[in-house]
C-alpha cells in the first residue's frame, strides 16, 4: 500500500474493510446493537449462572407464597382471588428490582477491572455503553419473567382473571419499571465506581423498597405507619398496576401512575448516569 493510500484509508480490524480517513466510528444505533450483543454473550457464557438466574424468581415465588399465604387474611384479598394469583404480579415487579440492582453491580465491576477504560479509547459514544448495559439486563429480566409466568401456569395453576392479555400487559409494565430502575442503579455505579459500594447501597435500598409496599400484602393489612410509607412508595404504584392488569381489575389510574413515575425516574436517572459516566476515570 502506498503512502497516499495510507493517508486516505486505514484498516478497520473488526470488519476487515477500509474506512475513510477521519472516520469517527459507527452510528449510535450500531454501537448500541454491537455492545448489547457483547453484553448478552457475556451473560450467556456460563450456563450454570443462566440456570440459577432463571430459577431465582420461581424460588422466590414458591417461598413467599407458602410463608405469607399461610398468614395473610384472605378476607382482605380481592373476591375469588387466590394468594398465588395475588402475589405473582408483584413478583414480576420485584424481580425487576433485583435485576436492576445487578445491572449496577456489573457496570461498576467493568469500570473497576479496566473494561470501560479500554472502551473509552474507541470512537464510540459514552451513552451507548450505558444504553447497551441497560438493554442487556432488560433482556435478561424479560427472559426471567417469561420463565416465571410459564412455570407458574404449568406447575402452580396460575390462572388470573385478566387472562393471557392481562398477564402479557403486566409483564410489559414490569419490564418498563425495570428499565427505569436499571438507570437508577447505573447512575449509582457511574458516580460511585465501586462494586462494593453499589452492592451495599442496593441491598439497603431494595429490601425496604420491596417489603414496604403493597407487593406481599394489601395495604389494609399493614400497620398504620407502614401503610403510610407504602402509600408513597413508587413501587406500590407499579405493583398495583401489574396486579390490576393480571387480575382484570380497573387499572386506568394505577397504570397511569406507574407509567408517569417510571418515565420521570428514567429521565432523571439517565441524565445523572450519563453525567457521572462522562467524568474522567479515577486515577
Automatic annotation (TrEMBL):
It is found in: Cell membrane; Membrane. Keywords: Antibiotic resistance, Cell membrane, Membrane, Transmembrane, Transmembrane helix, Transport. It comes from the Bacteria. The chain crosses the membrane at residues 50-68, 88-108, 129-158, 164-189, 201-219, 255-277. InterPro entries: ABC2_TM, ABC2_TM_bact-type, ABC_2_transport, Nod_factor_ABC_transporter. Its main location: membrane. It holds the Pfam family ABC2_membrane. Coiled coil: none annotated. Residues 48-280 form the ABC transmembrane type-2 domain. It is a multi-pass membrane protein. Belongs to the ABC-2 integral membrane protein family. This is Transport permease protein.
Amino acid at each position: 500500500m502506498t503512502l497516499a493510500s495510507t493517508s486516505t484509508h486505514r484498516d478497520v480490524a473488526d470488519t476487515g474493510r477500509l474506512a475513510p480517513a477521519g472516520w469517527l466510528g459507527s452510528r449510535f444505533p450500531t454501537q448500541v446493537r454491537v455492545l448489547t450483543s457483547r453484553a448478552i454473550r457475556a451473560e450467556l457464557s456460563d450456563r450454570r449462572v443462566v440456570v440459577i438466574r432463571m430459577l431465582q424468581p420461581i424460588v422466590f415465588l414458591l417461598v413467599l407464597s407458602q410463608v405469607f399465604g399461610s398468614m395473610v387474611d384472605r378476607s382482605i384479598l380481592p373476591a375469588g382471588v387466590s394468594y398465588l394469583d395475588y402475589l405473582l404480579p408483584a413478583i414480576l415487579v420485584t424481580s425487576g428490582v433485583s435485576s436492576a440492582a445487578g445491572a449496577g453491580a456489573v457496570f461498576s465491576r467493568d469500570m473497576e477491572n479496566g473494561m470501560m477504560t479500554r472502551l473509552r479509547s474507541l470512537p464510540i459514544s459514552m451513552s451507548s455503553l450505558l444504553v447497551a448495559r441497560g438493554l442487556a439486563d432488560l433482556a435478561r429480566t424479560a427472559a426471567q419473567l417469561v420463565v416465571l409466568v410459564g412455570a407458574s401456569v404449568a406447575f402452580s395453576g396460575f390462572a388470573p382473571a385478566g387472562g393471557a392479555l392481562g398477564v402479557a400487559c403486566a409483564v410489559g409494565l414490569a419490564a418498563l419499571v425495570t428499565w427505569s430502575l436499571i438507570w437508577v442503579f447505573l447512575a449509582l455505579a457511574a458516580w460511585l465506581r465501586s462494586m462494593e459500594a453499589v452492592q451495599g447501597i442496593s441491598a439497603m435500598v431494595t429490601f425496604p423498597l420491596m417489603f414496604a409496599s403493597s407487593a406481599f400484602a394489601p395495604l389494609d393489612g399493614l400497620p398504620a405507619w407502614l401503610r403510610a410509607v407504602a402509600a408513597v412508595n413508587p413501587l406500590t404504584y407499579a405493583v398495583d398496576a401489574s396486579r390490576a392488569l393480571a387480575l382484570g381489575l380497573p387499572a386506568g389510574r394505577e397504570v397511569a401512575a406507574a407509567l408517569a413515575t417510571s418515565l420521570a425516574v428514567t429521565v432523571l436517572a439517565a441524565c445523572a448516569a450519563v453525567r457521572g459516566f462522562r467524568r474522567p476515570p479515577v486515577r
